[in-house]
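Q&A log
Question type: sequence-to-structure
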Amino acid sequence: MSDVRSYETYQGVFSGYDLKPGFLDEVFSPEGKVFPHYNLVLDQFKQFTTEDFNELNELAKVSFFNQGVTFAVYSDKARGVERIFPFDLFPRIISASDWDHLERGVIQRNLAINLFIQDIYNKKQILRDGIVPAELIFSSSHYAKAMLGINPVGNIYNHISGTDLIKHSDGQYYVLEDNVRCPSGVSYVLSNREAMKKTLFNLFRKHDVLSVQDYPQQLLSIMQSVAPNSDNEPTCVVLTPGVYNSAYYEHSFLALTMGIPLVEGRDLFVDHNFVYMKTIYGPQRVDVIYRRIDDLFLDPLAFKADSVLGIPGILGAYREGNVSLLNAPGTGAADDKAVYSYVPEIIKYYLGEDPILNNVHTYRCELDHDYSYVLEHMEELVVKPVDESGGYGILVGSNSTREQREELKKVIAANRRKYIAQPIMSLSLHSTFIEKENKFEGRHIDLRTYTLLGKDKQYVLKGGLSRVALTKGSLVVNSSQGGGSKDTWVLAK
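Response status: OK
Response body:
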């Protein structure tokens, strides 16, 4: 007989757990039975009283505080105020078979996107063949004319990609959006695992969970693989805008764990199309730069002329093949949310394969038919600007007021190219400890996976960042909008 258990047998922090009809709960079946791969976790948690769990929760916060795991929200009135990243101790568990499907899907997707980026800055064949509308690409605010004709080492443009996925009520995973400009959050994946091990170590002894700790060395290996000069050990650096950036913790964390310098624009200079780092021993040539600076501020000679964050002349050095930039400038033209709707066709065009992962149906407001539909059905849709990140500018129709929808309609009418809409997807729910309620409740969750592409190298982090919408009923999981995260466990085969 199979070992099937019900949440009703669990009291304490799970007392009164509410299953929501119409949504997939990843821990409990619609009948309230515990899915088998969560049995050991529930067995551990049922031993805790509310007071026990609050104490463990505080221990996790101390772990994050000691690690310096913080983030800032740009809307904070007190600029530079740092917060401890919200973290939930109940892990999300993904089976080996599910992960195999996801891993193959994100590799396929990001290989195709890489070929697409190379094409739109060179032959533009996919545009000539009418698979993707040329005006859609050329009107993108992230299309960088300065990248025309540039072929980086290994022909890799999106070295680091973040693919956001949701699990729908039908049990299938869907890609929500692609992030190939400068995807963030991977440091929280590693910090989450560290906090879990310190707080609930016994759980790891009962599960065969794949490690995430090799990510920094895998990233360094990817960086070294695309170095322009392979004769010597390349000098690699992480380029940050500085301490006031919301993701500065991640920049410093990755530089430290890879064992390479963390630099700002003022630490680098270009001479005769080579990039150098200022050191106490004199100038040192730099071969590979993992940049966490937006295109616009990267080179004042090529982009924003008054930028003080970048390095004058660095794009010229890049064009000459004397330095590698991760990710390449101009990749944002491929993660435009309007271009997202064409990714299944992009996969078929370049790889000759059917997409492994599903897209969410997308309405492009610049198209008359789609525009009319969005205006008439806004209450049933999620409306997004095509070029924003962090959850900014999103309107969830079902959670909006009539006044908000009418105002947004005016904004869309003024710039239809900037907006898309998607059906309100039934993001899966996951048991999450809610401090103010002192118990577990179901909260909506998504997953950001991290794919690395190098010269003849591919790697997908075995897990990813499971982000949780901590506000009851909210579908917006971004930390900048009040979301938190969970440790993501991928079980070994």
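Response note: The longest helix spans residues 96-120.
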